[in-house]
TrEMBL record:
GO terms for molecular function: 3'-5'-RNA exonuclease activity; nucleic acid binding. Keywords: Exonuclease, Hydrolase, Nuclease, Nucleus. The gene is Isg20l2. Residues 11-23 have a biased composition (Basic residues). It is found in: Nucleus. It comes from Piaya cayana (Common squirrel cuckoo). This is I20L2 protein. The keyword S-adenosyl-L-methionine does not apply.
């Protein structure tokens, strides 16, 4: 089978060539004009004289390099590109708990920079011996409430300590998580002079350290103890100081303490000796 196809193919081709040559002899078809061998490789002298088509490829024009921006050009170079990088950076926000500049000695403090804090704790952990934050109140210089929320500890509550804390089970129903409360409270305390009674316990419950220069602990103020007739180097309870110097009773009854009431009493005690105390700091 394959040889027959090949022969028929050759026969058709020869027949086609014969007919074409016959037509060319009659002048019906022109003979094919093929270039002589090697003609394609010869250069055209006319074009060479005119400077066109010399056989050399023209170089493709390259785009001019873009000037590098200050931010990329200044990598590793101190001082370069500061303007561009500074403009791109967002404005600096002070972090909660960051150290703030303390007022100079002898200069009266601004009321807007003063807050008083009081926290109530419940017992968690084995035997309820660990104190965890369950309520926090922050008041301003004039006693206005800036913050007062119940806080749900991360650990299960073992002892509500209701007689002292005033916290009961139903207070935890709508309480905010500790992490949320801590973030909100530290935002208020940041950069402020914080007044508290045995305030280190409050800071411990918040897992926070406030700058010493911005802390006023009414349990450690000798002038305050002198005013109340107590020894200077003894820590007196908030209840006794309030009774002697402010002539009112707090923390009465069996319903427990109120952190708002205690924070307000602390601020009022501070104001009793504010000028004298600030002068000696």
């Amino acid at each position: 089978e394959p040889p027959r196809k090949k022969e028929s193919g050759n026969r058709k081709h020869r027949s086609f060539v014969q007919r074409r040559r016959a037509l060319e002899r009659r002048g019906v078809l022109r003979q094919k004009q093929l270039p002589p061998p090697g003609a394609a490789s010869k250069p055209n002298p006319k074009r060479q004289r005119g400077g066109k088509n010399t056989g050399k490829a023209k170089p493709t024009p390259q785009p001019a390099p873009r000037p590098k921006s200050n931010s990329s050009a200044s990598l590793g170079q101190p001082g370069a590109g500061k303007t561009a990088s500074a403009a791109a950076q967002p404005p600096h926000k002070p972090k909660a708990g960051a150290k703030a500049k303390a007022p100079a000695p002898g200069i009266p403090t601004q009321p807007s920079k003063l807050v008083a804090i009081d926290c109530e704790m419940v017992g968690t952990g084995p035997g309820g011996r660990t104190s965890d934050l369950a309520r926090c109140s922050v008041v301003g210089y004039d006693g206005d409430v800036l913050y007062d929320r119940y806080v749900r500890p991360a650990a299960p509550i073992v002892d509500y300590r209701t007689r002292w804390s005033g916290i009961r089970r139903h207070h935890m129903v709508n309480a905010v998580p500790f992490s949320t409360a801590r973030r909100e409270i530290l935002r208020i305390l940041s950069g402020k002079i914080v007044v508290g009674h045995a305030v280190s316990n409050d800071f411990k419950a918040l897992k926070y350290f406030h700058p010493k220069a911005l802390t006023r602990d009414t349990s450690k103020i000798p002038p305050l103890n002198r005013r109340g007739g107590f020894p200077e180097n003894v820590s007196i309870s908030l209840k006794r100081l309030t009774k002697e110097l402010l002539h009112r009773d707090i923390q009465v009854g069996k319903s427990g303490h109120s952190s708002v009431e205690d924070a307000r009493a602390t601020m009022e005690l501070y104001k009793v000796v504010e000028d004298e105390w600030e002068q000696h700091l």
